[in-house]
Amino acid sequence: MADLCVHLWRRHVWLCFKSSLGSLALLLQLLPAHAQAPTATPAAGSPPQGLLSCDPIIGQPLVKIHEIVSTNGVLRGTILLSDHQERMAFRMPPGFGNVPGKPGLYQVCQPQYVRYFSDPTELIPVLPPGDYANPLPGPTLRARVGDVIELAFLNQINPADFGDSIDRGENGIGNGCDQSTGSGGNQGYPANAGDVFPDCFHGSSTGNIHYHGTHTNPNGTGDNVLAEVRPSPRANNQPTITEQTFKDQFDKFFAECERHLKADPLDEWPQSWNDAPLGPPSDPNSYIGMQMKLLQAYDNGRPLSQQLWPVDKAQYDQGRWPQYYIGAYPYCFRLPEYTSHVSPPAVHAGTQMGPIAHTLNLVMGQSPGTFWYHAHKHGSTAINVANGMTGAFIIEGQYDDDLNKFYGPGWTRTQPVLVINQLGVTPNLERVGPGRIDKGPDFSVNGRLQPHIKMYPGEVQMWRIINTSGRSGAFFAGPPKSDPTAKAVDPAKDFEWKQLAQDGVQFFDSNYQKSLNRSFLMAAGNRVDLMIQAPTQPTGKSFDVLVKPAVAKTDLASAFPVPLITIDIEGSGPAMQFIKQAPGFPKDLDDITDDEIQGTKSIVFSSLGPGSSIQHTINGEQYNGEVGEVVLLNKVEEWTIRNTTTFTGIDHPFHIHINPFQVTEVFDPNETITDPSTNQPLPKYVFDPTQKTLPGQCVLDPNDPDTWKPCVKNREPHRIWYDVFPIPSGLQISRFGRNVVVPGYFKMRSRFVDYPGLFVMHCHILAHEDRGMMMVVEVRPLQLPYAHQ
Q1: Rounded to an integer, what distance in angstroms lies between the CA atom of residue 150 and that of residue 257?
Q2: Which end of the chain is more exposed for a tag (fewer CB within 10 A), N or C?
Q3: Are residues 409 and 278 in the same domain?
Q4: Exposed/middle/buried for residue 716 (C-beta within 10 Å: 0-12, 13-18, 19+)
């Protein structure tokens, strides 16, 4: 079919897609809910062919993302947050619904304003008039365990580009939430939801960065998701705060930060503005003094409840690190390297309660592996991640050294980094109705749909796969086969794979050996390092790696497989094989034993159906900024994470910052087993003895919650480490006229070590997080309130 370009005259927008003219009527149903910022109106007549074709973002070679690489133990760079119009794809025809992979669907591209991360030093290609940028993740950060990270963060978003998703709460509009209206039964967001500020979509031009999976300082200029940076003021439609505005002061700050953190990996410097060479507030030319002026100017004319400077001043007066900034912010933290030797005692700033004497020894270091970063401003996390505000964070170490020893010097740096996302704009309120794509659009990889990767016969590659999607998991059923119907794998004709790491922590060798050709689910936020080998005698030239989108295991039965990546077999090269033994495992990440457990907690995630006044909660509460759980520093606890959601299947992906965890038990009340006589699924867990028809089924007592647990416990020799794990959905059963909710759950163990402070846990379906499914966790140092002499 030929490219069809349609100009929506009243909205000054071109649409181009591959279709027949008969689809035009359907296309016209996809008008945005409110107008985009107008583009130049083209001359009358036929639009130029390919003006907004989807060809540049579908089926192209995998894009190599620009990298910021550390040198001499320091990663120094700038992350710019800005916005522009990009070529965005969504599915047609609308009557088929939001079902990726469903036969008969095709892609339509349209220019959309989105927010994005970039590196100002990266060369950006000049676009011809009337063309638009193609989506890309933020730059890849590549550092090494032990390095200090020093990033200047600039926010140059133009809030005027986003209509009704501007920061309505801070402008006193309505209930403080983004709003739009539509026609018919779909009224747009918030529609029939009862969301109110702060638990709703809002604040979409405010930015920050979460360094997902890092074991580091969660306070001050570390992995502090409570810091919020508003956009730079503008003059003549240009930002007044640029990379040069605070460069000299940030350079001085980074040098001092580097001195502190290299001397003591446990130092959480700076604790307050008084620690940092950025002030004081009384100096109008200093960073802090200018921040004070900018915040007061921002507050001018706003009611006290919406002002930012009084909050910062109160925190500053208390010796705490303030929360709000405008235009620019310095991130500085260390990726601590674990060593087994004992260091002499030292004194560092400790916490806001005072200095702490300690050794320089870590209980647990930063693991080398595949990590990522993304926007984490509460209220706009889903919006910004869907826009593409994500990026890979590769932390190298002994893991890479062992791989390079086997495959050759520098091999790991040549391997593909695959940033998966579900790009969309619906939370921006630019589109409602059939064109909305927030509920499971097709996966992009490095900003492209179905990109191509080259492999020669017999080649082994290591794919660093990162699911930065804000909603859907990706289920990898197995490696591509020449004959998909064949049960056995033929290495001469079929691909093979082995999983080497999960969520930035490598596998024990026993888990690596067992992973050959296994299927796996990457929930939103998960990472997988995958060793994949091409067949030695392929029968075809191109093979698709298929995945199924899923927010719950129950989705897999009805989900359509979609091609994530196409592998093109071409060329030739030296014979390769999988590394025989997994790299040496870090001693500080040995299994958490029963004897280590010093406390337990029970956490309940729950979603109610659409229209509920409060829909997404943890322990029955929406996020309110207050501390929800407290753990003492350097304690080890086992938590039971439950999911009581039953109105539909939602396996909430549980994520906690700073410290990874191990899963010791999983209970899924919706789990099924296959009846061998009919090849049909039957429930594994039944609540009436008469319903048990197969040996593998288990009978649970509907009146005794103590029986609601797995009937068989499988203890792996070594447990896998995670920082995201999907909580199985609950099950509602009816017994004697009453409804009983049987929650799914998993049990996890974590060492809450090294770094005291505040961070969060939340659902990694980010629309749930933004609407309240988040809680603050405090790791508190153990300090006696009294001294006895």
Answers
A1: 9
A2: C
A3: yes
A4: middle
Asked whether residue 181 is assigned to any structural domain, the reply reads yes
SS3 at position 541: coil
- Same-domain check for residues 638 and 682: yes
Instruction: Give 242's contacts (C-beta < 8 A, 6+ positions apart).
Output: 154, 156, 232
Question: Residue 440: pLDDT band by 50, 70, 90 thresholds?
Answer: low
23 within domain boundaries: no
**pLDDT by residue (tens digit) across 663-689?**
999 999 999 999 998 999 999 999 999
Read off the tokens for 563: 């091609």
**Which single residue is written with the structure tokens 């930060």?**
257
- Which structure tokens are listed for 146? 């032990």
- Whether 193 and 275 map to the same domain: the answer is yes
Distance of CA 502 to the CA centre of its chain: 14
Q: Quickly state the pLDDT bin for 388 (edges 50, 70, 90).
A: very high
Conformational region of residue 245, where left means phi above 0, alpha means psi within -120 to 50, and beta covers everything else? alpha
The answer to whether residues 269 and 377 belong to one domain is yes
Predicted local confidence at residue 565, as pLDDT? 97
- C-alpha 767/C-alpha 282 separation (Å) is 41
Q: Which two tokens stand for residue 57?
A: 């973002």
Residue 755 structural domain: 595-780
- What pLDDT, on a 0 to 100 scale, did the predictor assign at position 158? 93
CA distance 239 to 232: 6
Q: What is the CATH number of the domain that holds 454?
A: 2.60.40.420
Which residue's structure tokens are 């028809």?
A: 693
Q: What is the pLDDT of residues 64-113, one digit of tens each?
A: 999 999 999 999 999 999 999 999 887 777 555 567 788 877 788 888 88
Amino acid found at 295: L
Dihedral sign for Cα 35, 38, 41, 47, please: negative
* Cβ count within 10 A of residue 631: 21
Does residue 14 lie within any of the structural domains? no
